[in-house]
Amino acid sequence: MRSSGDLPDAHMDEAEQAPVPQAPLRPLPDVALDLIPRPGEPVPREVALTLLRRQLGRIQSRVQEVFEAHALSGLTAARMLGELTDGLISAIHAYTLAQVAPEQAEGGGNAFAATTEPPFALAATGGYGRGVLGPYSDIDLLFLSDRPLGPRGRRAVEFMLYLLWDLGLKVGHATRSIRECLEDARGDATIQTALLDGRFIAGDLAVFTRFEEEFARARQEWGVGQFLAAKRAERAARHKRYGDSPYLVEPHLKEGRGGLRDVQTMYWLARYAFGARRMPELVGPDSPGGGLLTAREARAFRRAWDFLWTVRFHLHYVTGRAEERLTFDLQPVVGARMGYTRHGKQDGVERFMKHLFLTARDVVRLSRLLEPAIERATLGLPALSRAADPTLTAAGIAVADGKLLFAPDRPVERDPVIMLRLIRAARDRGMELHPLAHRALIRSAHLAQALRGQDEANTLFLDILTGRDSARWIRVLNEVGFLSRFIPDWARIVGLMQFDTYHVFTVEEHTIEAIEVLNQLERGELEEAVPVASEVVGQLHSRRALYVAVLLHDIAKGRGGDHSELGAGIAQEICPRLGLSPEETETVSWLVLNHLLVSQTAFKRDIDDPKTILDIAEVVQSPERLRLLLVLTVADMRAVGPKVWNAWKATLLRELYWRVAEVLAGGLSVPERDVRVARAKQAAAAMLADQPRAGVEHFLSLGYPGYWLSFDPESHARHAAMIREAEATGAPLTISTRVLEARAVTEVTVYCSDHPGVFSRIAGALAVAGATIVDARIHTMTNGMALDTLWVQDAQAHNVGGAFEAGHKLAKLSVLIEQALSGRLNLPQEIRKVRREPARLRAVQVPGRVVIDNFASNTHTVIELNGRDRPGLLHDVTAAISEQGLQIASAHITTYGVRAVDVFYVKDVFGLKIENERKLAGLRAALLAALTPPGAEDAN
């Protein structure tokens, strides 16, 4: 029986020894001696429970202490905790037997020797069976016997389990005979897996030995094939649930792709097929399978296993529970605990997450290396069939199991370009790559550096990039490591995350997703969501340049500075190496430089302002470039994440595209402001032709020029009816709501007496109502009334990005606006009650930033605010603008995860731009104060 005070790792090879403390640890006291101080005289149960709780506390504290002192790595700490837990469980087992059969348990003998009842072995299964435990992991136990237990055996099991539960341990358990184990395991890979991890702890060793022998024979009878198929299906289902990419920015450490469970799956396959317990056992020609891994690959398994366990231990200790998802709020904490600090342009948390993502990538690659090798070694080499297409044979490509792989007589080392030929052949024939092909690609990826600048390799790569389903094949080239060797700059964005809540993927995964969107556009799958981009994508003359631009649009992220400018320079270096012409190179570089132009203009500027349209037209200059930019923008935005794109953003992009296209097509005739105002009034009058002439003239006299240029004739007609009704009834406040399903927004129009802060109060009321403002037009009429039009969306989690359309919500919204404007609603107090943000997002900080631009518009000062989004932010900043004596003409609101970007077109009380430096300095200071969350100053 092991002592509960024994230290672990005595059984480990020298190569597996982790760092140890400088001073040796004192062994923990052996609690078994306290539980049974004299043979046959165990202490009472309550006393035992106290002793065991104390010992459990010592174990947990000891492991945490040495781990957090960085004396142990995660894997060594997990083994230490497992080993010390073995001692505790063994002591409980001995105490149980002493209580259940004291007369037979003396000296640790078999408690059932003097009876006809079968003895049992106590075995660990699951993760505990593998000898590793997380701080808050379950303990899985198997009570194993030759035949079903008798009354005394069942009583012993029950006594022991209740003792474990009273200690607060999470215990999974099963009581089975050897025969029952094998019967249950037949055809059930989950039970097979649990038994595969079985490890003897205490009891009758002979029973456990017999079980191991019979289970080994049964596995041989059942074969590896069924277990392999079950594990693959289980893994596919798990990845579908937890994320099929190893690059999700909030990864599930245990179940996600490239996580601990994927490493464990490889261990299970090796154990099932060869009885191997460690990856080094698969190295060398004399190993099972004849050397399935190299020593370097086995070490990589070990490093990944160790690193993931280290992260997991920190995650458990930080949260105080068995937390397996590394959320935004936990990432900087765990990264700091592991010693990651800022280096150059990269924050510590980003460096930590990159290490984690690269580890997950290694796990994926190692799985693709080992799994087909195990299959080949146990089930035999695949039967190669003669390719029906002689060009395949000539290219050195064979067919096995209906999948493509390299022909045995054509080693990749001799002709590295065959890697690209294989990918293209699979694409052209609609065939899968054989697992052995993946294995060969991973081991040969380093040869891609010899292909840089080679004409055939460039031709093949560009063909793959621009061909059918290119995202799928670029993802393969990325996962096997080819892309990082072929384009060295690509390696710098692999595993690179941005610590925000806007991006769902790492940079390179986002890029591949953008290529996928481009594929979908060309297949016509997005005609309903983005009709204009779906139409123009077929009109492009620079298709190859577009695909390369999508591949390179974020290539300079993580280098500091403007990634668009830096990326444009990198594109000028990469494109000639890929074989692009000077004209294509210039187009790619220009697209990378301006890939944010369309989205930033559509969402952060007033597209009804002619200067906005003329400015972007001056940059774009050609219809072809405008088409390219629109398609690139759609691909980039839709690839960020499922919640980023919505119908409102699609509408803004579409409107901007058509207006700029009209200018580029020669429709630049932007007439003088007075002429455009006159035309707008004429159109409005035509819409009101059935109304009395005096009423129409009165309405036409109410609006200042800016009002007439901000809406279409239909909107003017609705406003006229609204104002007519308000004046007829003498209503001080009129509110109208209209759901625009095609745009996924609700239009809210408020007509009331104008006074400073009206828009701020409306914004506060909308925040309390659970609405998010995405755009707004604010107008003061000649009669002293305010006519404010706002477009809002639902801020609730289940409908983020959707119209604010529920009837009861619209009714509540109107009531809250009325209460806010009448002063009966305490807005600051009510806004503080609004809580929409999950706690995990609060770790993401966005420093406040104020940009004041007097050049973006001919008639207004444009204020751009960047800050941490929160309920009531718009209320606070618009209140600050009003307090500075400024009038807001329009507001354009965009959020990128937790980053809010709010743009306001403002004038002073005289209707002029704000150009006085003193006034601008005061405005900037007031806005920075408004961007600071309440209480943040106190916290600092």
Secondary-structure blueprint of this entry?
Elements: H1 31-35, H2 45-68, H3 74-100, E1 120-125, H4 126-129, E2 139-145, H5 151-166, E3 171-177, H6 178-185, H7 189-196, E4 199-203, H8 205-222, H9 224-242, H10 260-274, H11 295-319, H12 331-337, H13 348-379, E5 384-385, H14 390-394, E6 397-400, E7 403-406, H15 418-429, H16 435-444, H17 455-466, H18 470-479, H19 482-486, H20 488-491, H21 507-522, H22 531-536, H23 543-552, H24 563-577, H25 582-593, H26 597-604, H27 610-620, H28 623-638, H29 647-664, H30 673-687, H31 693-700, H32 705-708, H33 713-729, E8 733-740, E9 745-753, H34 758-769, E10 771-780, E11 785-794, H35 807-822, H36 827-833, E12 849-853, E13 861-868, H37 873-883, E14 887-896, E15 899-907, H38 917-931, H39 936-939
Parallel strand pairs: 2-3
Antiparallel strand pairs: 1-2, 1-4, 5-6, 6-7, 8-9, 9-11, 10-11, 10-14, 12-13, 13-15, 14-15
Helix pairs in contact: 2-3, 3-5, 3-11, 6-7, 9-10, 10-13, 11-13, 12-13, 13-16, 15-17, 18-21, 21-23, 21-28, 23-25, 23-28, 24-25, 26-29, 27-29, 28-29, 30-33, 34-35, 34-36, 34-37, 37-38
Characterize the structure shown.
The chain is α+β, with helices and mostly antiparallel strands. The protein is 52% helix and 11% strand. The protein contains 39 helices and 15 strands.
